[in-house]
Please model this.
Amino acid sequence: MIIFKTCAAAFLLIWSPFLLAGKADVVDATLSPSGDSYRVSATVKHADEGWDHYADAWRIVTADGTVLGTRELAHPHVNEQPFTRSLSGVVIPSGIQEVHIEARDSVHGWGGKRVTLPVK
Model:
């Protein structure tokens, strides 16, 4: 029993940084026409822990997985959650009916909740 408790404690100690923050989620997003392109704003929520584990990007993708734009996030937002950032000049090809906004974190990569927006 002591070995089990020691192994469980070691597992939690090693893996807790990865288990606590989880994946980055997009909790809201907007798509605004701006001439021949769009301005996309995304609100991302993630339990940023500092430089070792934080939401480091979000992107706009089509249903078939084509990436239309990526907004890199240059630093952790430990004390600013959720946070909103924008990306201008996003070109959406004609015929695309909707886009998905998804986030990435520095440990888990792309994933978490995403938002789907209709293209008008």
